[in-house]
Amino acid sequence: MKPPTIAPDRLPALLAAMPKAELHMHIEGSLEPEMIFALAARNGVALPYASVDELRRAYAFSDLQSFLDIYYQGASVLLKEEDFYDMAQAYLSRVAAENIVHAEIFFDPQTHTARGVSMETVIRGLSRACADARARHGISAALILCFLRHLSEEEAFETLEAALPFREHFIGVGLDSSEVGHPPSKFARVFARCRELGLHIVAHAGEEGPPDYIWQALDLLGAERIDHGVQAVHDAALMARLAAERVPLTVCPLSNQKLRVFPDLANHNLKSLLDAGLCATVNSDDPAYFGGYVNDNFRAVFAATGMTARHAWQLALNSFEASFAPAADQARWRDQLGEAFERAAAA
Ligand SMILES: Nc1ncnc2[nH]cnc12
Ligand SMILES: [Zn+2]
């Protein structure tokens, strides 16, 4: 199906109104400064910031590591099952109102187990929020457990073991945290075990790291999706493979801007990735830290790069195709997308 013609002045409203899936967001990155302070007070955790404003002013990042240092500090207020529930509930109710129909949510258990929080506390809180969001808002949500790549493969194995009693609560595994110096090859054996267990496989690669890390994620980890992947444009053979195999890239424009992966959004390569036939999608990564949720990402990158309604159509379709959701759900969302475009064309 081809999208109906949309007047350019209708495009911003359509970007917000169209159904879409979010496939790359870290739930700990949805902790707004206000919630960090509220949870710190509730749990008696001391913060090195005097106020919400002072914390927000610290969100000036020069690269991925400068962000991660603050992000892990923010997560230190999460202690009880209720905290994990409240965080995920806040994210899901917010994005349901942004017409996200499906979310695949990353979580970083090692950030919490290292502080003495049990795997059960983390997973039960998040999973209950996902179930409640489906009942309350009609949004489907699933969890993806991420291994921290700055830690060892042995620690990743221990994390997997600790999570297996809760296997039915997560659909896959990913790889995140400090990329450069921690190639996918470091985790080949633990991902082989995850594949044996029937888990879906994704990995951050080519955010700041080289195209070789994307090859490794595909060939050594068996990644079904690449998170970020924007450095692929520097390798023509890799671009050809990603296009031919329709390996999805979960791109995060505002994150890339804030972490200075691109000098500004006008120079972001999302449009080139789409025009080269790649299955790129738009996502928020860590919305509380990078200046916006999914609709903010769509609005900003469209305004800066001059993409059109045809790109919006493709991005929404890609988000469904790239998801791990059942084919029947994807077909329903495609129908809803067609209806949203028809309404925008008639307006
Ligand atoms: N953008 C990102 N890259 C790697 N690890 C992350 N953890 C949270 N956000 C991340
Ligand atoms: Zn990420």
TrEMBL record:
<dbReference type="GO" id="GO:0008270">
    <property type="term" value="F:zinc ion binding"/>
</dbReference>
<feature type="domain" description="Adenosine deaminase">
    <location>
        <begin position="19"/>
        <end position="337"/>
    </location>
</feature>
<feature type="active site" description="Proton donor">
    <location>
        <position position="207"/>
    </location>
</feature>
<dbReference type="GO" id="GO:0043103">
    <property type="term" value="P:hypoxanthine salvage"/>
</dbReference>
<dbReference type="InterPro" id="IPR028892">
    <property type="entry name" value="ADE"/>
</dbReference>
<keyword id="KW-0862">Zinc</keyword>
<keyword id="KW-0378">Hydrolase</keyword>
<keyword id="KW-0479">Metal-binding</keyword>
<dbReference type="InterPro" id="IPR032466">
    <property type="entry name" value="Metal_Hydrolase"/>
</dbReference>
<dbReference type="GO" id="GO:0009117">
    <property type="term" value="P:nucleotide metabolic process"/>
</dbReference>
<keyword id="KW-0546">Nucleotide metabolism</keyword>
<dbReference type="InterPro" id="IPR001365">
    <property type="entry name" value="A_deaminase_dom"/>
</dbReference>
<dbReference type="Pfam" id="PF00962">
    <property type="entry name" value="A_deaminase"/>
</dbReference>
<feature type="binding site">
    <location>
        <position position="285"/>
    </location>
    <ligand>
        <name>Zn(2+)</name>
    </ligand>
</feature>
<feature type="binding site">
    <location>
        <position position="204"/>
    </location>
    <ligand>
        <name>Zn(2+)</name>
    </ligand>
</feature>
<feature type="binding site">
    <location>
        <position position="286"/>
    </location>
    <ligand>
        <name>substrate</name>
    </ligand>
</feature>
<comment type="similarity">
    <text>Belongs to the metallo-dependent hydrolases superfamily. Adenosine and AMP deaminases family. Adenine deaminase type 2 subfamily.</text>
</comment>
<protein>
    <recommendedName>
        <fullName>Adenine deaminase</fullName>
        <ecNumber>3.5.4.2</ecNumber>
    </recommendedName>
</protein>
<feature type="binding site">
    <location>
        <position position="24"/>
    </location>
    <ligand>
        <name>Zn(2+)</name>
    </ligand>
</feature>
<dbReference type="GO" id="GO:0005829">
    <property type="term" value="C:cytosol"/>
</dbReference>
<dbReference type="GO" id="GO:0000034">
    <property type="term" value="F:adenine deaminase activity"/>
</dbReference>
<dbReference type="GO" id="GO:0006146">
    <property type="term" value="P:adenine catabolic process"/>
</dbReference>
<dbReference type="InterPro" id="IPR006330">
    <property type="entry name" value="Ado/ade_deaminase"/>
</dbReference>
<feature type="site" description="Important for catalytic activity">
    <location>
        <position position="228"/>
    </location>
</feature>
<feature type="binding site">
    <location>
        <position position="26"/>
    </location>
    <ligand>
        <name>Zn(2+)</name>
    </ligand>
</feature>
<comment type="function">
    <text>Catalyzes the hydrolytic deamination of adenine to hypoxanthine. Plays an important role in the purine salvage pathway and in nitrogen catabolism.</text>
</comment>
